[in-house]
Amino acid sequence: MLHAPPAAAPLRSKTIGSCRCQQHEAEQQPDLALNSYADAATATHHWHFRQPEREVAASANQTPIPPRSRPKRKTKTHHRSFHPPSSSSSSRGARRQSLYGPRAPVPADRPTAGLEIDYHHSSEHLPPPSTHEPPARARTAAAPGSRSAMGSGAGGSKLESPLLGPAAASRGGSGHGEAASGELEGILSDASLPWRRRMAAATLVEMRLLVRLAAPAVVVYMINYLMSMSTQIFSGHLGTLELAAASLGNTGIQVFAYGLMLGMGSAVETLCGQAYGAHKYDMLGVYLQRSTVLLMATGVPLAVVYAFSRPILVLLGESPEIAGAAAVFVYGLIPQIFAYAANFPIQKFMQAQSIMAPSAYISAATLAVHLVLSYLVVYQFGLGLLGASLMLSISWWVIVVAQFVYIVTSRRCRLTWTGFSWQAFSGLPSFFKLSLASAVMLCLETWYFQILVLIAGLLKDPELALASLSVCMTFSGWVFMISVGFNAAASVRVSNELGAGNPKSAAFSVVVVTVLSFILSVLISVVILLCRDYISYIFTEGEDVSQAVSQLTPLLALTLILNGIQPVLSGVAVGCGWQAFVAYVNVGCYYIVGIPLGCLLGFYFDLGAAGIWSGMIGGTLMQTLILVWVTFRTNWDKEVEEAQKRLNKWEEKSPQLLD
């Protein structure tokens, strides 16, 4: 029902359905209510209408006249003024129909030759937004502090876009991952679907996202592992001393720097992932530069340690010959430190945007070149250990330069990389705290099983213990690369969903990625158990080693199963920004429980390598159970609020230095 306002009141613009009218702001009087179409026609001097002429023709069963062929009409009617039809009137009608549903039939006694008013605009005729919105834009779970998607007024209801939805200017930069993310939240929030159908549809969407993220990440980490292993193989063919030196440099000093740099780079993974989900694209480039500055500064003291590696190794008990050869190898790895400092922030920057495939292609091409050049440098040019390690450093720098060129030139990064900024040098102390917590969390995990090997060297038969453990650790390292890929996928998915304000999608992603990684690790463990009597022959022909490996295989299978869960939950922790909490958990479970328990079983109860490994598995199991308990009792709505607070804390505007 329409109400005619008093004649003397001021006018304001208002939209009703597809008509634009001007309505008085004064209170509408009941005695002025118009109860017939005739009364509406007599009161039109208070209303200014825009005639949808093509729709009028359709409602009168007439053939609509194309807009360009209809001549402009000039009307001097005092009661109304008509505007020439717009070429977008049909598109407006289509958009209105997609939002509000089809028009109701026009009454037979309704006049169609004159003006047309949409009488079906009120809130009682308006279906919920999730019914007619595309799934990719459905946002039924509003972000903290956001207004409802529906706002009602005196004249009807108005649709408002969600607070955390993509802005019109930034939709061009959103990729398929963002659309699928919104689709997932819409499916999980659609109460009209049966529970099983909803879970099946959501699982399909999430699996598609995880495969796109995890598969390239696994390839990247596998190739990085192969590059270091190939360098060690080339060095080993030079002689036994060179093999020992390369092994000591790779598994000792180089792993220390790798874990520290990768851990500190995880701060970028948290902030960039949440900023990308919140559509604060310009901040991703700032976080990338800030982390690079911080890691480059950290690389300076590490380079000093590399330079004095020989006396350090002698002090730790290594023979002067092995320490001297290892120092030569480590000297060539000094440029690799700063390649780490540039690569890990770039890698996390691209992962946060679900850009994984380019890094895999770049790493694969670099590996092929690395193998050829390493052969030439080591054997043809005779540069030995120094040449092998220098080629490894150069290969890492090739990866860094290629990825940065992709970032600068790719259209996929045009919103996230806007040039160098002075802001990269601001807030470094606070950023260092988050980076340090990330580094401690990862290093405690990385060094844990390195300590297992060191302790095994103190047993009664160290040669057999070390040989059997090295075979098992090699298989564990290969399978761990798969878990690290799921770790990266979990971190990206959770951080993106929290930044976008999608708590249901974040929680669902955690469940799917954990279950998927667990199933895969169980299958691999079954294969390992079936081949327990044969896997050692890949590395050696000794019967004693084969028997020892067969006895340790059940522990290896249990370790693989735990590694299918624990790294994924660590990735969830990184996505949520829980690095400091997980660091405390790692200290308690690994170094207060795991290592002392392993030493007790291995030496006091004389269980040897199996006892040491069993105790350390106990520490890993305790850590995994704690992370499972904390993760699945998390209030994800609160995590969305924390993500927004974290982004607001780090978001500081500053002028550009170079575009």
Automatic annotation (TrEMBL):
Q: Which InterPro entries match?
A: MATE_euk (IPR045069), MATE_fam (IPR002528)
What GO molecular function annotations does the UniProt record carry, in alphabetical order?
antiporter activity; xenobiotic transmembrane transporter activity
The transmembrane segments are 209-227, 247-272, 293-316, 322-343, 355-377, 383-408, 438-459, 466-486, 506-531, 552-575, 581-605, 612-632
Q: Where in the cell is it found?
A: Membrane
Q: Does the keyword Aminoacyl-tRNA synthetase apply?
A: no
Q: Which GO terms describe its biological process?
A: xenobiotic detoxification by transmembrane export across the plasma membrane
Q: Could you name the Gene Ontology cellular component terms for this entry?
A: membrane
Enumerate the Pfam families for this protein: MatE
Name the residue ranges with Low complexity bias: 83-92, 137-151, 163-181
Q: Where is the composition biased (Basic residues)?
A: 69-82
Q: What broad class describes the main subcellular location of this protein?
A: membrane
Q: How does it sit in the membrane?
A: Multi-pass membrane protein
Instruction: Write out the entry's keywords from A to Z.
Output: Membrane, Transmembrane, Transmembrane helix
Outline the segment boundaries, as ranges, of region: Disordered: 1-181
Family, according to the entry, reads as follows:
Belongs to the multi antimicrobial extrusion (MATE) (TC 2.A.66.1) family.
Q: Which PANTHER family match?
A: MULTIDRUG RESISTANCE PROTEIN
Protein name per its UniProtKB record = Protein DETOXIFICATION
Organism (species): Panicum hallii var. hallii
